[in-house]
Each structure stands twice: as structure tokens, then as C-alpha cells.
Structures
1.
Amino acid sequence: MANSRIRNTKRLLGLAAVFILCALAGSALLSFRSSAESEALTATFIDVGQGDAILVSTHDGHHMLVDGGPRAAGARLAETLDRMGVTHLDMLVSTHPHEDHIGGLIEVLDCLTVGTVADSAKPHTTATYESYLTKIYEKGIPFSAPRAGDSFSLGNAEVRVLWPTEPLPPDINDCSLVLEVIYGKSRVLLTGDISGYTERTLAGEGSLDRINLLKVAHHGSRSSTTQTFLAATSPDVAVIQVGTGNDYNHPSDQALANLRSRDALVYRTDEHGHVTVKLRSDGRTWSVNIEKPGDDLRAACGSKVFHTKTCPYAKRIAPAREMVIFDREQALNAGYRPCKACNP
């Protein structure tokens, strides 16, 4: 009887040990999965009206702000960054010295700490640019003027400078810093206000890669977003930073037509507000969220079918692959087709 109890006790202890080991292994696997699923590069296109402001963030808390919109948007930009929990910028980039790109940076420099400023260093004599440079000098922030071929790290992402070259072009827009952000196999291209001339130059040099995400150059003006450039980059998602009812008729019909011809899913800050794109490192997984969801449709990256939010098929889309689409027109313009089950 005693021997039987001892054997039963040993068997129970052995089973308990197995269960504990399984639980620990499961917990470790869950922890690994949670960590892997949280690892993404995030590009947030902040609505600053007629201007650019893009925050690029890594999952481990490194941040780069590219441009800051007009001076009138500075306070709103600083508040947005504060709400996002950003208190320090590893890198602040001014693509070129026009007011709709640097004006808001003056407020940002007052509110956040900055590791380094990267600037095109194209001479410009406006009061806004002078105030911006003075602020950098007063705060003792290191200042750099990167050129094509330079690169730097942002956490576990790499940022490559594709443009400009020396001597700088005479046109200020074509002096814009063009940055390619590389995260594993994923690619983001930030183009400032370059014209078709620079786009074609980059394509002709073989400097452009197939990309996942494009910041459309010069707010979608008719002088940019050329077919040559789009053929070289083939973006899956394109974002136009533009102000409602702007005086320049941005974005142009030509730029939008060129993007449609490439089946790029196009977002606009004037219609959709802030646009947030999260990219995994595999080069084929990303999600898109927008501040103003409109009809709140859904699609999965890599698919060409769109759904209502409540469609059973939409509910199966993994968060890492879920794209919010504003309306049916946006989806159809990008070559998507409606789901036959929910008929959005």
C-alpha cells in the first residue's frame, strides 16, 4: 500500500513537472510572438495643412521627424508629437528651406530635445529660415548637410540619402533631401518637393528600389510623380500631404492618374487626416490607419479585395495586415474589387 502511494505520488509530481514545463514553454512562445508582432517601423504622416511632416519611429523608441509644415501649424504639430509620447528626436530633417516644410520646426525645436539636424543647406534668405537656423545654433544642436551616398541608423532601421548631389541644383525644390528608410526588406521613400527632373535622374542612375510606401513629391504637383519614377519604385501605398482647398490645386489630376495607373493605394491628409503606416521587416506585411475613416472599409495588404468593416472576411484580417480605406472610390482607383459577400 505504501509503495503504491509512493508510485502514485511520483507519477503526479512527474505530470506536474510536465505541465509546468509546457506552461513555461507556452509563456515563452507567447512572449516571443508578442515581441515579434510588436516590432514594426511606423511612418506617421501628420496633417499640417499645406505642408509636410512625417514622423518615422522604430519599435524600440527611436524617432526621426522629416519636415514640420508651415509655421502656423507648429503648435499643433508639437501637441501631436506630445500626444504620441515623443519627447526626443534622434534626427530632425529639413528637406529644403521652404516655409511649408520648416516653419513648424521652430516650435518643435522649442518643445523637444533633438540629437542631430539634417538639412539640405541650400542658401535661403527668408526670416523663417533664419529663425530656424538661429534656434538650432542657440540650442547647440549638431548640424549636418548629408548628400547622396550618405547613410545613418535609426534604431534597427537604416536611412539612406539618395539626393541631392553637389553642386546643388538652382531650384530649391530640387535640392530636397530624398531619404530611403530601410527596415529589413521593407522600403519607405520620402521625396520632399523634388520635380520630375530629379525623379528621372534618380531612376536613370539606378538609385531607386521597389518600395512599399511613398511620400508623393511636392504635394502631388503636376511636375512630379512621373511614370518613369513610378515604374522604378512601384509603391504599394502612396501618401500625399496637402491642405484642404489649397491655392495650388494640389494634388494634380496628372499625379493622381499616374498613381492610379500603377494601382497604388493613395491616401491624402486633406481628406483622411493623419495617416499611419506600420511596416513589418518581411517586406510584404503592413497596415494603414487613418484619422478620418470615412466609410471605414477594410482590406488586407497583398489582397485586392475590399470589405465592409463588419464583413466576416474583414474580421479575419490580422491587425498587422489591416488597411483602413476611406471609401469605395479610393479602393476602386487602386484596382481593388468589392467583396462578393458584403458588397461594400
2.
Amino acid sequence: MSKFKIFISYRRKGGYDTAKLIYERLKMDGYSVSFDLDTLENGNFGNELQKRIKKCKDFIIILNTGIFDCFTEPDYNPKDDWVRIEIECALKEKKNIVPLKMEDFTYPKRLPSDIKDITRINAIDLSPEHFEAAYEKLKNSFLISKPNWKIRHKKRMISFVFMVFFLAAAYLFFTINASFKQKEQEAREAKLAVQRADSIRIVREMELMRTADSINAAMEAEIARTADSINDAKELEIARTADSVKAYMEAKAARNAQKNAVQSPPPKKTPQQSTPPKNTVQSTPKKTPQQSVPKKTTQQPTQQKSSKK
């Protein structure tokens, strides 16, 4: 069974609505209140009610008009009057009894001896016009029980938790947003860096291509100039060599002719041999330095000399 600190006693006829209102307000403010509408444990109803009263610190009784009228009824049985049993138990257990007197309520002149001491207890006048003031007076001046901290501050706790959740969500949102923006900025910077690198690479490639083209053009021009120079030099050298060979051959031919002219005896003048024989004239130009003509010419004088001797 739950541990209740406040017990509310009321007569259903005339006091239920007020008792229910007091119960809801106290429960909302964090108090632990027992109301007979709550589920009771299995067992005797009267015994369970008395157990709750004994465990409570405060006992609130709603005094509405006609609450004690049943005492004068002919078939009245005290054992069936739960309000009287509750008041008697609270007085006997010396609980903190708080009577709430509704409008137009007055104690009867005679009450049973077991509950007549309730008339000596200070009560709170409860009226619709001054209900809030009476309720605040009940909480602040009459009740011994203190509200449950968790229930009393439930709204504040909910508000606090909501605020913490909101702040945490806002922090996460801003953090994630900042992280996302940072990553987006980093991605943008990386993209710009890649673009700059591509631009630099393209510029360098173009420079290398221009340099390679310049080098190739220069090399081709230099090769062409060198080839032209070599060709010119070769042609010049060939021409010089040809001229030298030609001059040498001409000079050699002239020397050979001169030697032949010096070594050969003058021909005998005859009418028929006024001109040199065709064989001797034609054979002389055709002789080359490697032919054996000069040797024969050189041997003829010796033969002539020997003949002379």
C-alpha cells in the first residue's frame, strides 16, 4: 500500500465535489493524498481505511451542511457511518485534524461523545469566493505534511528537462551545423585548391610545351644550319679536291708532255714526214701516269747512245 500523508474524509452527499477539488489541488502541488476513490488493498474496507488514517499525518474533514444529520435518523447505525468512524480514528490517533467548513455549516448542539472534540479544533472557512485564499492558508498554516519534491517540482522539472533538451538540441544543431559548414568550407577550399593545382599544372604543361616547341624548333634550325654548313663544307671540299686533282693531273700531264718533248729526238725532216705520225701524236695524250710509255721513252735514248758507241 502506498504511503499517504494526508487523508480526506467527506460525506458523499454535499461534500464530494469539494473533497475531490481539494484532493486534485493537493495532489497537483505534490502532496501524497488518500482519497477513498483510490484502489484499496484486499481485505476489510473499514480496516484498510483505519490503516491509512493511522499512517497519515494530516486528516482533512469536509464539513458541509447536513453532514451530521444522519445521527438523528431512526435507523441510524454508527458501525455503518464511515465518516464518524474516520473522525473517531483520527481523534484517537491524535492526528493533525483540519476541518474545512463550507458555507452555512454549523455544528449541531449535540454530537456523539466519540467525535464531539472536533468542535474544539480550529477550522478554515471554505467559500467559493475565497477558495484560493483558504487553500493557501490550508497549505501554509495547517498542514504538517510537506509536498513531495519530485511531484511538487514536476512542472519545473519538466520545464527544466525540456529546456536542457532544447539547449542540448540547439547546441547539437549549431555544432552539427558549424561542423557541416566547416566541412563544406573545407570541401570548397579543397575544390579551389584542386582547381588552382589544375590551373598551375595546365600553365606548367603549356610552358613546357612552349619550351619543348622552342627547343625543338631551335634544334631543328640548328640541325638544318649544321647540315647546310656540313653540306656546304663537303661541297666546297669536294670542289677543292676536284680542282686540286684536276690541277694536279693537268700539271702532271704537262710535266709528262714536257719530259716527252725533251727526251724524244727531233724527227728527221722528210717531205713525207712533215707532220708527226698519227700514232705518236695520238698515243701521247692517252697515256696515263701508270702506263709504261715513259719507260720506253727513257730507254730509247740509251739504246740510241749505245748504238752510237
